[in-house]
Amino acid sequence: MIAASRPRGEAAPSVPALEAMRQAATVTDSSSVPAARRRRSWSALLWVVPAFGMYGVFVLFPMLQSVQYSFYDWDGIGPATPAGLDNWKAIFTQPELLQAVVHAFVLVVFYTVLPVGLGLVAASFIRELRPGAFSTTARVVLFVPQVLPLVAAGIAWTWMYSSDGLVNQVLRAVGLDQYTRAWLGDLAFALPAVGVIGVWVMLGFCTVLLLAGIGKIDPALYEAARLEGAGRVGEFFAVTLPGLRRELVVCTTFTIIAALASFDVVQVATQGGPGYQTMVPGVQIYRLTFLQQHVGQASALAVFLAVVVLVVIWPIQRLGREK
Amino acid sequence: MRSLIHYRRNLRATGVAAVAALLLAACAPGGTSEAGPVPSKPASTSIGSEPVPLKLLVTSGVDVPFYTALGKLFHAKHGNVTVKVENQDYATLTTTIARTLAGDNVPDLVRVPQLGNLTKDHLLLSLDPYVEAYGWNAWPQSQFASTRVGPDGTQRGTGSLYAAGAGFGLTGVYYNKALAQRIGMTRPPATVAEFEQLLAKAKDAGLQPIMTNGKDGGSVYPLQNLMISYAGDAQAVQDWNYTKPGASIDNAATVKGATTLQRWGRAGYLPADANDIDQTRAPAEFIKGNGVFFPSGNWQAPNLDKTAPGQFGFFLFPPDVAGGPSYAMTAAANLGIPAKSQNADVAAAFLDFVQTDQQARQETVTLGGLVPAGPTDAPAPTTPEGSAVAATVNAFQKLLKSNGLVGFMADATASIHVNSLVPQTQLLLAGKTTPEAFAAKVQSDYERDLGR
Fold first, then answer.
1. Contact state of A184 with B419 under an 8 Å Cβ cutoff
2. How many CB pairs under 8 A join A and B?
3. Tens-place pLDDT, residues A49-72
4. Which residues form the domain of B135?
5. I need a labelling partner for B367 at 20 to 30 A (CA). Which of B59, B161, B193, B256 fits?
6. Which residue in chain B has the smallest CA separation from A31?
7. Which residue of A has its CA nearest to B414?
8. Structural domain boundaries of chain A?
């Protein structure tokens, strides 16, 4: 009864407090005595308190604190002085800060669009493979980047991208000498090069998640599509794609957040350079906080980034909920 | 469904209450604004006889065996003091030092990468009483300039002393002796123009004239040297480094220096992928023979000598006019005494010891790769003849007397290096900015950093 009233795919609670409340709500719905309902509802609230307390202390409070800091000029240690809207104005007037946000959106193409697209293709192919050594190997190979720490991935790719690295060796081997370059040191190619690292990391995650989603699609649907004479492509658009709506929403949401809030790969591979070509808000916030000790400015940029992420994520979530 | 709405209402009420509580309690974040410096404790040069654990926090890597050795020497002299060396990597220490010193478990001596707000926030002890007690004021004073901080807590080069160190870094130009011979270099270039001719000869001979790590700021060294050479003296740059009011590098010397560096980049005197070479790869490439010249610092010298003894030389960056003064960038490996240290007197004794003791000064060169300064009559450390280390030590002694030591522009403000100098130099080498725009941009970033 409870399970049936809960929409599919929300079984894994992202926020414990909300899930507890949702459950409590469902339970009381089934009760018919108003007095009992009232008593139960209060006791249910009691169950929420510990989770909500933790959530409040470790998530809500720091968030509100960041908002508060963003209106101060503070070095993190000494006295703070009110700064009004200066920190917020700087985001829109300092070209380097706004440019970093733009770069984050360029990374969305590499962290989200390409991995989700390629992930769909890969998952569709792997689905058709008979379960066996090859299919397992394919999954493992695609998923391994997800297991590696991003810092390690960044270092490994830095070597591959260097003048004598693997990428240039391959180009030379196939006679494309004129295209070799120090990829991460090239003003035009540094950001796409960082983006490709993102593709490599995110592709495995998307493929595995989408494969799991495909596994849940009723095989009868595929059979029906075949009987109706649908080819591979038709089958993909008629059955696979609609069946993966929720998984696609999760993939897109997760990877967009990873793109907009990226830090590790950039910090390790390019430190924002050459010039300002790969600077992203994550690295800016880190530098502002720990190097420049401008906690107020860093907080303003962090809150701004969080709002940008929410604004981008929100319509995607809506899309996932529609019937 | 009604109960859900009911819950939502409750939740909203709780939320409003939480925000209200926060706003009510919201005073400005951070500490209180106590005025004035930390009252100096009565300084004493006595170490006593009670057992004292002296805790050092230094940077990871070569610093650990170096300070451990210094600690052993100190323990040998003062048996009741046991030196314990802890370490954090440079980047971590830079980002956590303020928190560490504000906490309860502070070290007695800490490697200070940058003074930043440490003095303004009263986290470091003023060493003035010890300067007096140990007679450091009779030593050449240029060695202490970079760690003096004025009463405003920002301007350096004047005011109270907050850190001192065992030894100094020093920049110049390394050269590969064999390759230099091949291009007919018989003596270090006397002028910038002569240096440029050598670069052209190297290029013609099919060699890589200069190796540099443009990815993390190695190309800023020759640029700063060019600026000083063209200016004829280091005053403007030094004022700028110490954030003296009105200091500016948006001037003709900077534009000329940037023009020269850009020209060198275009002519292929710098590696085509300079912006992708970091500080690990550059010395490795230079050792391999990729590069006749390598503008860098004395911290490279021990490794160069170890890998290929006697094969690498070192000279100071040439002046613009023959016979003009030479300059080099320098920075001390500074140690400060945290304001909360329980053993400040012993810590100060250790600082005096590492600058004056003969064995300690020898270890500073041998293990630390740094040049000790100290008093004028201090024992000079011995170095193998013809080694790169010997060349750097000699150059330092010469500059200490001629007042030719200048701080790194990178240390002017906390972020000028990563946010301005490095990216702007990269853009300069890539031809994406002009020398004039370069000078103006670095200056405006600097002024913004300082809130001017």
1. no
2. 138
3. 999 999 999 999 999 999 999 999
4. 52-167+333-386
5. B161
6. B3
7. A292
8. 2-69, 94-321
